[in-house]
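Ticket reopened. Same input as before:
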Amino acid sequence: MSNTFNSPQPLCHYDVVIVGAGFSGLHAARILARKYSVLLLEASAQVGGRVRNHQFANGDVVDIGGQWIGPGQDRMYKLAQETQRKIFPLYNRGDNLLFVGKRKIRYQGAIPKMNALALADLGLMLRRFERMALQIDPQKPWAHPKAQKWDSQTLHSWIESNGFTKTAREVFKIGIGAVFAGEARDMSLLHALFYAASGESMEHLLSVSGGAQQDRVHGGTWSICSAMADELGEGCTLNAVVRKIEQTEDGVSLCYEQEGAMICVSARKLILAIAPNQINRIQVSPPFPAWRDQLFQRMPTGSCIKYVARYNQAFWRDEQLSGQIASTQGPVHVVFDNGEKGKDAGLLMGFVDGDTARTWDTKTADWRKQQVLQCFVQYFGEKAAQPAEFVEKNWSAEPFIRGCYAAHMTPGAWTSGGEKLRKPEGHIHWAGTEMATEWYGYMEGALQAAERASAEVHSLLSRHLERAIK
Amino acid sequence: MSNTFNSPQPLCHYDVVIVGAGFSGLHAARILARKYSVLLLEASAQVGGRVRNHQFANGDVVDIGGQWIGPGQDRMYKLAQETQRKIFPLYNRGDNLLFVGKRKIRYQGAIPKMNALALADLGLMLRRFERMALQIDPQKPWAHPKAQKWDSQTLHSWIESNGFTKTAREVFKIGIGAVFAGEARDMSLLHALFYAASGESMEHLLSVSGGAQQDRVHGGTWSICSAMADELGEGCTLNAVVRKIEQTEDGVSLCYEQEGAMICVSARKLILAIAPNQINRIQVSPPFPAWRDQLFQRMPTGSCIKYVARYNQAFWRDEQLSGQIASTQGPVHVVFDNGEKGKDAGLLMGFVDGDTARTWDTKTADWRKQQVLQCFVQYFGEKAAQPAEFVEKNWSAEPFIRGCYAAHMTPGAWTSGGEKLRKPEGHIHWAGTEMATEWYGYMEGALQAAERASAEVHSLLSRHLERAIK
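Engineering reply: fixed in the latest deploy. New output:
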């Protein structure tokens, strides 16, 4: 590596360096550290990536990043068990509320009592979407016979031409906002279908019991990351911002900035476990091929602000409300009761997503809080006006993250470069939930991508070892 | 500025630092240098940005970047005059050829002799497109009553539902590829309409005589940049890669890497005149607000590879061919005769654009050359098989550029953040063709944005001066 910044020559050599200590990087490090020397670098002051805890003054800990796990996410359940975390179901008793314009509909289960036409329309839209998604092989969405067609239009266009009632289209879009943290126009139809296919089905992604919002982790999902980091000990380094990567024939050199100093290390293999929007921000030498740089340019991350209001009592539960809200008007389109039982009860969690989230930092924090509380009051009555505590997390404002939940493939991205997306680039292997073929965008996807990348690296390093022994 | 990398404290102070020495940065520097101390930093080894010359072994100089100017681009004509460059018209005599699938159509002027139905269909599509584009105020495309609708679909979707014959749709898409260096699905319909509106009309952008491909600059457009840089002298610094920008109340500090050293300077105002895909790659402190980072994530640059084959004779001219080709099959979809008269004749220039350009670097240079020459042979006969020289320029592979001609706003970008795009961010002002409201994507746009940014900076600095004097 050229000795820029008067940095010392590489100080340490590792078998594997991993960049990004979210679920994916931590999991990969944990797997590989069993056999190899591993260094895990995290740019932020804490591990967890798009997963984080907030502790309220009363001691309650709440997730302000990724929080749910559900059936089919076997790796997450296993990991929670291995790290001694307790699982509990999302509070799911009582009635849900749906607000369509100014109408309020109270209902139980997954299906709101809308007018029969809108309901039938919504049902048909969902069925049509699912039928298409079922045909997608999430290993290779680009290979579907209609991939070009589906990748050339936005999901929005599909909704417009497949929903015949305004209500059905609007309710469908609430679901999209909540599942993707984005607008239906932010991504291609093919990406939306792939996303659903990678997570079993859209219905699964939309559901609480039996679906992707079924379970929570006691103490927050971040506590799993924390336990994983503890296991790694000194192998995990915080506040380490990777600036330069140089590939050679034998491996990589890498320089990171830490507390004002530039530190360089070398490794035989490198795993990048960061969001695609971050990858092109690192100087890489030789530069990535044109197709890869162009592809990462077409993988912007979604946007979502997560709000949690803490009340001394979960008063809505007394009124037989589940706390689950969907609203076509917003700005808070979706709400959940994020509390456990007993002392941990009294938490309302709301999402502001897509364009609103993207542009809300032009307003003051106080204005945003008032907007959110006005929604809560509309949904749950005046008692919601005065929470004991209130927290906001805007993932698009977070340096080294810059969006959530995950990258949306813009129209054309999957079919022009997707096939090569996960292929190693020299000694660089790819992890992070965006490199998953199962549960893309979820913590489970982060683990799946980590396992695939680790297996690739292990296979190469062990072959190398075999050759050395022979 | 925090003294990372053990860099010295800011050595020099300037009124204005400008990043990026393309047409925009050079023009801004030239304007501001009349009144202020200015430093212009260029990351590459030469000025010009997406404009560059190639000199063949026989001495002929050809444009391998932006090359055309046309009526309405007054700033460019004026600048060419000021820098003593001669203008000449693109060779435009004889017949054009259109290849639709395996059919070859020879025609004169702008309108090919397709079958009547396809021709009428294409005409109607263009008229419908123009009618919409005419309604767009390029100062504020987001303000059109249908902006949300037009920004929620891809241009591709519009073409599919507005072209009734396959031929018309395919020919329209060749035009889009040539005008935008992208696929119709890469951008929103609103962006395409804005783009056309900012450059008078789509017909204007598609035309040679009387349109955006009318004129060339003798010695290459790059020679204008070179003359501007000469004028600036030491005020323009090459191989200076900006890594860090820090804003304070009074101005900015900025560190750039040059020949292995980190050099820091300070300035009262900063103009960024680089492509949006490059902006987020610089570390900025305090970080850009969420909306701006998210917006730049949604402004990927198009992709285009430019090929020039030099022949000892412009043999196609003898056959009364203009050298102008459009082909629905490609991979070279568009060809022009890029030669002057006399000794400079014999140049065929072809574009490979969009997805093909984006992914062609997975093939060998020789394979690509054969593909291009096969097209030339198909279009002009066997004599095209053996050029004396051949040059390829892939702008997506170019570090510090990573695409061309310009950024495409993906669906939703204009209406979610466009309104604030050009607003100064603290002491940072925005130039580059993507910040233009006239001739977005063109060299003329680069100049227009430079003039707007310079005027902003001048207005602020002179007001400051007035206050200081009082």
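Residues 1-7 of chain B have pLDDT under 50 and may be disordered. Chain B is about 35% helix and 20% strand. Please confirm and we'll close it.
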